[in-house]
Backbone:
């Protein structure tokens, strides 16, 4: 802090005086604004923020080729804005916005396809379990029918023996 005050005093005492201080302040302000992102071109600032969002990260994972095209369009928009061509910058930003929407839609589609596949696997497992249960039910029913038939045959045989013994 002492060094900064000494520099300010030196600059203030120089022959340029207040101009040197103003230049130093302007330089510091420019440095701060550039470091904070104020130098980011307007056309792409909002879209870059959307790319950094959670939804943008999901799209980056599930649709990387579209995100690469979005970033290329944003770079084109930035270059056009730096060149002073606002119309071209807006056109590139619009292209980037449309590509980002397509990437989000693709990411949602991939996620829905994965959910659908998982659901279809679960349905297949439930149907297989239901088939096994039905086969087991049929086997139990057949075994019960056989036992009932044996019991009936045994009862009729016993009744026939008793009737034969009584005669």
Residues:
């Amino acid at each position: 802090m002492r060094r900064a005050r000494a520099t300010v005093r030196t600059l203030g005492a120089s022959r340029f005086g207040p101009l040197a201080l103003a230049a130093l302040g302007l330089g510091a302000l420019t440095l701060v604004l550039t470091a904070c992102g104020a130098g980011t071109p307007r056309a792409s600032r909002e879209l870059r923020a959307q790319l950094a969002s959670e939804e943008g990260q999901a799209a980056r994972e599930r649709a990387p080729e579209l995100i690469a095209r979005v970033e290329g369009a944003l770079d084109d928009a930035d270059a056009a804005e730096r060149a002073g061509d606002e119309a071209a910058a807006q056109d590139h930003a619009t292209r980037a916005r449309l590509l980002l929407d397509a990437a989000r839609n693709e990411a949602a589609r991939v996620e829905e396809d994965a959910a659908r596949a998982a659901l279809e696997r679960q349905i297949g497992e439930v149907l297989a379990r239901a088939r096994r249960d039905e086969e087991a039910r049929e086997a139990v029913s057949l075994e019960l029918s056989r036992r009932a038939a044996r019991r009936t045959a045994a009862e009729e045989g016993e009744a026939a023996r008793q009737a034969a013994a009584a005669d």
